[in-house]
Specification:
By secondary structure, this protein is of the alpha/beta class. It folds into two domains: 25-146, Acyl-CoA thioester hydrolase/BAAT N-terminal domain (Immunoglobulin-like), CATH 2.60.40.2240; 153-435, 3-Layer(aba) Sandwich (Rossmann fold). 19% of the residues lie in helices and 30% in strands. It contains seven helices and 25 strands. The strands form six sheets. Strands 13-14-16-15-18-19-22-23 form an eight-stranded mixed sheet, with helices on both faces. Strands 4, 6, 7, 9, 10, 11 and 12 form a seven-stranded mixed sheet that branches. Strands 3-5-8 form a three-stranded antiparallel sheet, with no helix packed on it. Strand 6 (51-59) and strand 7 (65-73) form a beta hairpin. The longest helix is centred in the last third of the chain and has 23 residues, at 410-432. The protein is globular, with a radius of gyration of 25 Å. The protein starts with a strand and ends in a 5-residue tail after the last helix.
């Protein structure tokens, strides 16, 4: 609906009602929207052919302001529609409409070293300002961008030694998905909440770094994850027949290991995957990351680190490549034993570990030993290790206070994020739909 405003004017010292003036220049956008979709933004009643700017802004959990800007030319009807129109210029490159959200930069971050910080599974309030070519503000609005969709419930899991957050959609019973994070530890609530918002019953499972679990990622029993799969399948809100796993980085590594042991796993989505089991990320580098039946899972041992130039960020991929050349044969993940299909997501410029090379090896191993016909590898040129799951600011490619380089560029990572996540959701829907009763 368009705004109207009534104009009063003075005639001979008296107020005279001139009448309503329709179609005041305005922004149209929903008050709330899923965080993994582009917010539909429309500006109307503009001057046809004139140039206008849209600027988005958000404050992250650390109190830092992130912004993005794009200029558009109003059409003959005085309308700008970001889903339809190609911007004249942007602050974020060619990311399309999603760039107003994933292409934000932190103000004052000249060296681009900051990561966007959110509270797990909370909403993000984004403001949008419409201004003219002179910079005069015309209208503004805000949208609450949500990880948790309408009707989704969260249940804390602290039984059978498990630590997790279980997100249930309103359409129960729903296909079950186990969600595993990487070496950062803790929960992966944002991904689980998004999956629940798409109709999955998703368990965000911590396996170290929270109370009641190991402090470091070392010698984690694979039976722990298998117990979580059994728990998930036994829930009344989960459809019978099998579940999927979504894992990222070290979470992808263990997802593939667990899937190779469990016929209950019907599909695996692995972001930045590994083709081998690596040693632990812990103080005692001789330990394995995982155990099975009380014994260490064969893994690639540590080797002396590649020297780093003073002041330069560490590029762990160099060390991983060196170790990969010396990998014992039994450290390879037996992916040929995984009964369901794989969706692998990797960037060509991953500098944390060589995820694309390892993804290619996974695909080759599957092909040589009877691959599943629906296996897929999504390769993203120029992207690194940090491929996200929703339209959040991609932020810096460096982690650990800028000390570690993960590769790619923020724009390439954001582009990969926008393309891969919908495909991951569709993949799980297709592969797990037949399991729903």
């Amino acid at each position: 609906m368009s705004k109207t405003r009534t104009v009063l004017t003075l005639v001979g010292g008296s107020c005279v009602l001139v009448g309503p003036v329709a179609n005041a220049q305005r922004l149209d956008m929903p008050p709330a929207a899923p965080i993994d979709r582009v917010v539909p933004i429309r500006a109307s009643s503009l001057l046809p052919g004139r140039v206008y700017a849209l600027q988005t802004a958000v404050i992250d959990a650390a109190g830092r302001r992130w912004t993005a800007r794009a200029t558009y030319r109003a059409d003959a009807g005085g309308v700008i529609d970001i889903d339809r129109d190609v911007p004249l210029a942007t602050s974020f490159g060619d990311l399309g409409a999603g760039g107003l959200f994933s292409g934000m930069w932190a103000e004052g971050d000249v060296d681009q070293r900051l990561r966007f910080l959110t509270r797990e599974a909370s909403s993000v309030i984004t403001s949008v300002v419409l201004s003219d070519s002179a910079g005069t503000r015309i209208d503004s609005a805000s949208v609450e961008r949500r990880f948790v969709g309408p009707g989704v419930r969260e249940v804390t899991v602290a039984e059978e030694g498990l630590r997790g957050h279980f997100y249930l959609p309103p359409n129960s019973p729903a296909p079950g998905v186990l969600v595993l994070g990487g070496s950062e530890g803790g929960y992966v609530d944002q991904v689980a909440a998004l999956l629940a918002s798409h109709g999955f019953a998703a368990l965000s499972l911590a396996y170290f770094g929270v109370e009641g679990l190991p402090v470091q990622l070392g010698e984690i029993p694979l039976e722990y994850f298998e117990r979580a799969l059994t728990w998930l399948q036994n829930q009344s809100g989960v459809a019978r027949g099998g579940v999927g796993i979504v894992g990222t980085s070290k979470g992808a590594e263990v997802a593939l290991l667990v899937a190779s042991r469990s016929p209950a796993v019907k599909a695996v989505v692995a972001y930045a995957p590994s083709s081998v089991a690596w040693g632990c990320i812990c103080e005692d580098a001789s330990r394995a990351s995982w155990t099975a039946n009380g014994k260490a899972v064969a893994s690639v041992p540590q080797v002396p680190s590649v020297p780093v130039s003073p002041g330069a960020p560490v590029r762990p991929v160099l060390n991983y490549l060196n170790r990969l050349q010396r990998a014992p044969r039994d450290a390879a993940i037996p992916v040929e034993q995984i009964q369901g299909p794989l969706l692998l997501v990797a960037g060509s410029d991953d500098e944390l570990w060589p995820s694309l090379l390892m993804a290619q090896r996974l695909m080759a191993r599957r092909a040589a030993l009877g691959a599943h016909a629906r296996d897929r590898l999504l390769t993203y040129e120029g992207a690194g290790h940090l491929i996200g799951k929703g339209f959040l600011p991609a932020g810096s490619t460096r982690i650990a206070g800028g000390r570690i380089e993960t590769g790619g560029t923020p724009v390439a990572n954001a582009r990969a994020q926008a393309d891969s996540w919908p495909k991951a959701v569709d993949f799980l829907k297709a592969e797990l739909a037949h399991e729903k009763q």
